[in-house]
Please model this.
Amino acid sequence: MLLLLVLAGCETEKDPAEEPLDPSLLLTDGFCLLSKNRVVLNHYDIDYYDYSAHLIYLKEPLDFEKEFTVPGTASVYADSTRIYDLSLFSAVASYIVYGPLILVPQIFYPDFVIALDKMWTSQELTEGAADEREDPRIAEALEKYGQFRQRLVCEIRSLTYTSPEDVEVRLELSNPDEESYYYLDPGKMGMGLFHYFTNGLTVWDPASSRYIDSETEPVQPDPWNSFDMEWMSLLEGGSSVSLTIDYGQYGELQPGSYDAFFTFPGLHHQVDRGDLDQQDGRIWLGDIEMSGALVVE
Model:
């Protein structure tokens, strides 16, 4: 009888850690990230949030493999309001997930940065779908604790395709923050090295149902995981700069209108925390994705 009572108790008693928790009891105001009904980080952990590249800079490094379970999901909250869900996606997975995601482990960034990425569908890109990561409630929650940074903003000013040997992209890079930032300058780096960090101009060709990229040969840094301040220029707070990128080798495009995309690159895993702050400004990390229309006559 005693043995039966013990067995019955083992069957009915539950581990408190397995009990679902009410997120409202765990949430704080400001920005929160929940996984498995548990606050993984909130405004106490955040140094600031780069809104242009959707990078969360942490006060202390975070062990992602310990904090997150893969595969799985997480949720972004702003002032205790659930804004959107995202996938916790293995960096070595053989499949693709669409929508907001966090790569685990964060192989592209140092351990003091969390990248809130997004995998877009072709339809979302061509239709200019809204980005849930840019919900104004998130910005408001970050601003409450002085953690919002607009950082760099990049726009396509013009796209010109005269021939495969004459393609021009004109960009405007702006810094709306008070702080100054160092950015990768294609004029200083050269086209090959600049295109090691980005595919540059990509055009969707509906006739062939494929993307067409620049034929520029990328040049790998030596060593591969290094960077040089000589590659960069300083963009002071409240200022902007025009950048022109000329392609002398591009794919053949027939007359018509095309959807074009450009990713302006920054540095990633190459930069340690001690390298971020330079004498006159801070090194900008991340990428900015843009789109526009390319008309070929």
Notes: The longest strand covers residues 153-163. The radius of gyration is 23 Å.
